[in-house]
Amino acid sequence: MTLQKNCFHCGEENPPSTDFNVQINTVSQRMCCPGCQAVAQTIVDSGLTSYYEHRSEPAEKGLLLVPDVLLQLEDYDIGKIQEDFVDNVVDNNENLSTTTLSVEGITCPACAWLIEKQLRSLPGLVFINVNTTLNRAVIKWDQQQLKLSQILTGIQKIGYKAYPFQVNKQEAFYTQLTKSYLQRLGLAGLATMQVMMFAIALYADFFSGMEEQFIHYFRWVSFILATPVLLYSAQPFYLNAWRNIRNQTLGMDIPISIALLGAYTASGYATIVGQGEVYFESVSMFTFLLLLGRLLELRARRKASESSSNLLRLLPSMATLIEDPDNLQIQSVIPAKTLTVGQYIIVKPGQTIPVDGLILKGASNIEESMLTGEHLPVSKAQNAPVFAGSVNITSQLIIRVEKVGNNTLIADIIHLQDNAQLNKPKIEIIADTAARYFVAALLIVASLTYISWSFIAPDQAFWITLSVLVATCPCALSLATPTALTCATAQLNKQGILIKQHHVLETVNKINHIVFDKTGTLTKGNFKLLNTQYYSHYSKQECIDLAAQLEKNSEHPISLAFKKQQKNSIVLNDVVNRPGQGLQAKYLNKTLKLGHAVFCGVENNINSKELVIYLTLDKQLLASFELGDELRPSAPEILSYCHHHNINSTMLTGDISLKSEEVCEVLSISQLQKGVTPQQKLQYIQQLQKTDKVMMIGDGINDAPVMAGAHVSVALASGTDIAKNSADVILLGEDLNKLAALHKMANRTTLIIKENLVWAFGYNIIIVPLAVMGYVPPYIAVLGMSCSSLIVVCNSLRLLKS
Question: Which among 60, 114, 380, 141 has a CA at the least distance from the CA of 240?
């Protein structure tokens, strides 16, 4: 055996005493040094051996020896670049990174399953979920063990291309893919028309006397016209089938590819030998109809996924920066993404606000429908918060930048949308698994069909088998659930209802008991100090100042009532918040308490329907405060909806005042549990869940444990962060009627998923026996297969209509 004289990678002479080899396309190639060996092995491991087939000259030694495509992937590991698309999260006490990737080449759930299966073997990859409707993948990984470029390389290695999701790139990809489909479709359509003319000439009765030489001529012309259709137009089906075969999985494009290649090969052989039937028109028409179905499905999926992309388009790319809020003459227009916290910007009427911030000067009406789903403008003045993506309507505003980029509310909403896709519902997992087994069963049925018809009618065996391969459609089965869930989630987002967990829409339609918190949920939480009584040498204002200073350590709405009345700051030590009871601290080396009578150790001797809390110092009563709150205008309507739909209601509150009974009476709430601690709330929910499907609605710290324990939990956007983190759903705005919209959407989604699955199963149960018995012509088979998937997607798109 003669050793290679020159390095296969760089072309330099190989030292005689070295032995560095890399297996490239099943051939062992010799390298001159460990560096070339390492680079060559990287290229092979990344699935890029075609680099060696198409290069015009050897790589330069000692330089950037890795092809550009790999170097571009390594750029994604740079921290500064990752700031735009990577978030850091804490999951099970681990610091992880998460991002959303756009993945090119996904055509069916088998592709998603393949990507997930292959990447889960990477050390450091904690989670991956591929959404076939959106063509996106959500991943979580440990930066210490795994680089983002390695994940992208892993996806590329199995035949797909991935990159961080960005709206402009997604738009470019969609435009390019649509253009590619149209070009392939156009060629297939033209060829089909031409080949069909020759097919009519060959098979119509009035041409039965045609001379043999013309028959051969028409066949050869059809052969030539069908060849570019098979090699170019049908290429996407072969590429997907090859990916599946190479990675030892089954996808719908495998039987399609077998059918197309089989029909073309058989017809080509008949043309060359001059014997047998030819079906070049079937090959061309199959390809045309399949591509048409894929194009229509692509556009339908695009419509389903564009909602989340539209949120990103709301953000302006430029902002008007001012150095001094008192001098508006010096302005500069800069990219919005370069703004930093503490800077000042001007937003003129009609412009979109680029950041989250506080109004420093001016007052205006702000349109926030893209965040809350409520189209009436909101009046905002000095010190009011404004959010990126909202539109300034009436007057010029000077805004202090508080949050930029991934920290804005709109970025949080998009992040929640992505998180909602993190896990697949059980019904989707079952459907995907069934679809993969379905393809295997299809190939077995097709084989048995061919064998059987070979004995019954050998001349029809091939074409009947072809119909069996093409007619069946597991894609419709796999698309039934994800397309419906994606459309439903997008429509709810438009209405200001953010779904955080995958199971919500499955579970909400089974809910028969809703548990409401009172303060800040059924009521506005805008407490007003109605009356103050003081019982010691401390003055009324001193008592209010002490209470206000304590309440600064609470996120409860009560704190706002005291904040407005405070005049002097007081130093307190060892402040402790007891959720559902009150607050305590050390003041002048004594224990200062503010809260319910039992917590403060005093008698509740004030007869009031409003909330009464007490202030004590070492159990000496200093003051009592009577606080008033109002019902939300939407509260009666949502309770009426519950009664109309036979949904039981309970109010679960830590408030022990008579206000609780009044609220229950006004709203006709079935049950009341008042004066309960967070632990007692959780115990009540757990007991209730033994017989009922329970939804919990809350907004405070004391609601967090019970929200985590309920079947479905809903938090208001105005609530505390801990409540929102515990919730499965977040309602933007203050309209409780969104709960009714959520319930209706869950019912509609469940119904449409059932319709999709019934159609997918029903179609295949009917079409397979008919195709096996020879009653389904090939062109009807391909029409049925394409229409089956399209019907499922279009049925799901009904959810986008409000």
Answer: 114
Contact predicate 132/106, CB 8 Å: yes
What pLDDT is attached to residue 1?
47
| Residue 732: HSE in the Cβ half-sphere, 13 Å Cα cutoff | 23
- Report the alpha-carbon distance of residue 433 to residue 620 in Å, rounded: 68
Helical axes 738-772 vs 778-797, angle rounded to 10°: 170
pLDDT digits (tens, 9 = 90+) for 643-683: 999 999 999 887 777 788 888 888 888 898 887 877 788 88
Residue with tokens 């996806």: 155
615/624 Cα distance (integer angstroms) = 6
> Which CB contacts under 8 angstroms, 24+ apart, belong to 53-62?
57/11, 58/7, 58/9, 58/10, 58/11, 59/9, 59/10, 59/11, 60/10, 61/7, 61/10, 61/12, 61/32, 61/35, 61/36, 62/35
Whether 478 and 462 have beta carbons less than 8 Å apart is answered as: no
Question: Which residues of the chain register pLDDT less than 50?
Answer: 1, 62-66, 205-207
Per residue, what are the HEC states of 523-548? ECCCCEEEEEEECCCCCHHHHHHHHH
Give the Å distances, CA to CA, from 583 to 149, 255, 376, 507, 613: 50, 69, 38, 37, 11
The Cα 433–Cα 410 span in angstroms is 35
CA pair distance 700, 722, nearest whole angstrom = 8
- In this predicted structure, what is the pLDDT of residue 753? 86
**From the CA atom positions of the chain, what is the Rg in Å?**
34
- Location of structure tokens 């208001």: 716
In angstroms, the CA 426 to CA 757 distance is 14
User: With 0-12 CB in 10 A as exposed, 13-18 as middle and 19+ as buried, what is 561?
Assistant: buried
Extended strands (E) in 298-411: 318-324, 327-335, 344-347, 356-361, 364-367, 378-380, 385-386, 391-392, 397-403
What separation in angstroms does the CA of 335 have from each of 346, 518, 604, 621? 14, 44, 59, 58
Class level of CATH domain 74-165: alpha beta
Query: How far separated are the first and last CA of the chain, in Å rounded?
Result: 74
| CB contact at 8 A, 663 and 522 | yes
Domain ranges of the chain: 1-66, 74-165, 173-314, 322-417, 425-503+735-793, 505-523+633-727, 530-628
3.40.50.1000, 3.30.1700.10, 3.40.50.10860, 3.10.180.10: which CATH number matches 505-523+633-727? 3.40.50.1000
Residue pair 91/139 in contact by the 8 Å Cβ criterion: no
Specify the amino acid at residue 439.
V
Q: What is the mean pLDDT of the chain?
A: 78
